[in-house]
Amino acid sequence: MDFIETIVPAEKAGERIDVFLTGMKSIPTRSIAQKLLADGCVTCNGKPLQKNYKVAAGDLIIYSLPAPKPSEESLAENIPLDIVYEDDHLLVVNKPQGLVVHPAAGNWQGTLVNALMHHCRGKLSGIGGVLRPGIVHRLDKDTSGLMVVAKDDIAHQGLAAQLADNSMVRIYNAVCFGVLQQEKICIDAPIGRHPIDRKKMAIIKEDLKRRSRFSGANTAFSDTKNKRARRAVTYIEVLERMEKYTLVSARLETGRTHQIRVHMAHIGHPVLGDVTYSNRNQPPFLKEQQGQILHAAQLSFKHPATEQVVAFTAPWPEYFQHVADHLRQG
Fold it and tell me: Which CATH class is domain 2-65?
């Protein structure tokens, strides 16, 4: 276990301890800082802290980072990976539909993390903890496409910072119900945990308004201050119109859980195959329990080691191509 010491400078006085810790060595996000506080891994002048403690100039902050190690629930497995790019710092994988990203209750084995542990021989960032080594961002089980994985903590911090400041470009392709009339739609609507079904996300409708951001676009917008909601922005562009469906690209500005699926349902054009956020009858040609027709097709970011912008694309997988071809044939 590593112990790291730091003295609070005068200009940081008055900050909450979780805010002060965020961005320090191996603490790229506020949620990780809060977990360290909850686990008793942070002291101030020799005493444990609460997450709402406000630091004072001269405080001696000491925090410890548990060393990541495999557990019985997260063992390396020889599962084939579609690796688009790999170097000493990171790798980009093309995740297939149906593959769970990390172990959790009901899915301790057969996940992307299990495969990564085998492929990388333990050389993965430990920031995400035992069950999520290397995982910077995630895709839903039934969403296919590109993910970047960090091999070391420095790469993880750099990638996480780009996610936080929205500079990492993530573009998805999706087939949705109905024919969109606008060429471009910006959906700016806050997302939070569903108030009744805790397994789902939902638009928090307080202060929800309509506004236009640019020519030919509709925007669903909210300035809600509801603590359950977080700002969520998705840019939709029509790629192809079919008789009863539309093929779209969806670019994420933010990255909330189920964001594209929730936003598309919100504007009345749910993603085809998404039975969680749509009660529409699915077309008979879809395979039983097909899952949403949603694919992370493009990913670009600044490489945290070289600082060069790198860009990757993943062609449509077979399931996506099959659906598109079927719909084009009417």
Answer: alpha beta
